[in-house]
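Hey Z.,

So I finally got round to the fe (ii) ion thing we talked about over coffee. Here's the setup:
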Amino acid sequence: MTDDTPPIKRILSGLPGDELYTLEQPEPGKDYLDLMEQRRWAFWNSKPDDEKSHYQGYDVTPELLKNSLARQVHAELAAIHAPNLSLQVCPWQEAKLWYARQMNEEGRHFRLVRDHLLELGGTWDDDYAPDFAEWNQLFSLFMNLDNHFFLDKRKEVIARAAVLNFGIEGWDHLYVQPLFLEKIRDVDPTLFEIYDEVIMPDETIHYQIGQFILGEYATTTELQRVGVEYLDRQLIAHHRVNAAFKRYHEEKDEAAGAGAGQDHADAGH
Ligand SMILES: [Fe+2]
Ligand SMILES: [Fe+2]
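And the result:
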């Protein structure tokens, strides 16, 4: 390390894998993935159960279900565009092929969830963006990577794989979606089928794409450090989303209460 090397900025510390910030030799791919996995579990295990999931609000009222589904439709579109950003700059052929597959599958999810939303009487148009600041921040993290890496495309691909495939989709696959399925089984059996039969099996592949890219291509100490840094950024941003749902739903309830009052007043005329 020379004197002009910028100091390493740790995003999280006190978790398994802290050493990935300051490796002198790269870890073998499998050991690297093991450490990343342990780090992710340790982080989420330190949070209360109701802050471990972002599939919240699907089982409250039909209005809230439509609101949640619109957000999900938008998420599927974002999940087409983010791998496309990586595909365009990715220097690794095998990784490009996996991204092409993912984009196709996210397009299928988009259609299925959008059509279901429309069947429920919801609407969809391209002007939509979620009315939820923390949610939008998480999405901008995997689209823009906090505006880092305008030059090194390897870092860009590793960071995006750490946030989206390994971080978000990995947590979905391991923890969130099984819970979510239980939650919607009785509320919306069609949505249950869409997730059980199509989306969840595809998401397993998307998580494995993240493992493949990190395990296969993060082969230097610098790329392994980028991977852990962006896993940490993802964990923080994703946890913020989950923890914000309570406030978000309270605001929705208040707005609905005010709206109902208005309807009632109107009906009185
Ligand atoms: Fe998807
Ligand atoms: Fe996905």
